[in-house]
Input
Amino acid sequence: MSDTVLVGDNGPWVEITLNRPDKLNSFNDEMHLALRAAIEKARDDKKRAILLTGAGRGFCAGQDLGDRDPSKMDGPPDLSQTVRTYYAPLVRLIRSLEFPVICAVNGVAAGAGANLALACDLVLAAESARFIQSFSKVGLIPDTGGSWHLPRLLGEARAKGLAFTAMPLKAQQAEDWGLIWSAVADDALMAEARALTDQLANGPTLGLGLSKQCIQAAAKDSLSDHLEMEADAMKICGESTDYAEGVSAFLQKRAPKFTGK
Output
């Protein structure tokens, strides 16, 4: 596997680290393919959670613009091809996984890097981290799902404000606004993120995965359709060994041992 992405196996979960620290982990084609391969392997290996973070002083600065510089090309780049080939499939993959994806934002998350974080299920950020919708600085729109996630998480006014101004959003303000799950002291970030990932990976991941899918579907469903989706999901959960184990553990006043089945 490419060394642009590092993978640490922790039994039921994996830690995936973007590893181009000299470029603030900005994306080139090689890192795109390596990240997608690492996530797909975690899925195929039946892992129960992923922790995504970045090496060095930043999480991800988005696209490496050196690879998309019009002055070094015969003509303007077709950025729709970049989105359709790399960024859109990555977001779809993360959203489709039937287990939690936790993101630990250890520094700046800019452009596609910010929106990659938002595609994950739970985002923890170091207090020194900043989220920057930097697209307007180069005449672009928030991609990697940014123009979809931002208004749903923040509302139209704040989404437009961040997109138009490229204002850096501090981690604590991102938490206060509901953009991320939690802002954490810098020196505690990775310990807390790993503990949370381990907790979820050893939890009732069948139910967690179904919760993820139901919550994500709520943006498009009518209430009536969504109640049916809930009923279908509850049938699956009710027939699972995790539910039987959870009820037994509750009645016996002991800690449950979930298997994700």
The beta strands are 5-10, 13-18, 49-54, 58-60, 101-105, 108-110, 122-126, 130-132, 169-170, 182-184. The domain at 5-201 is CATH 3.90.226.10 (2-enoyl-CoA Hydratase; Chain A, domain 1).
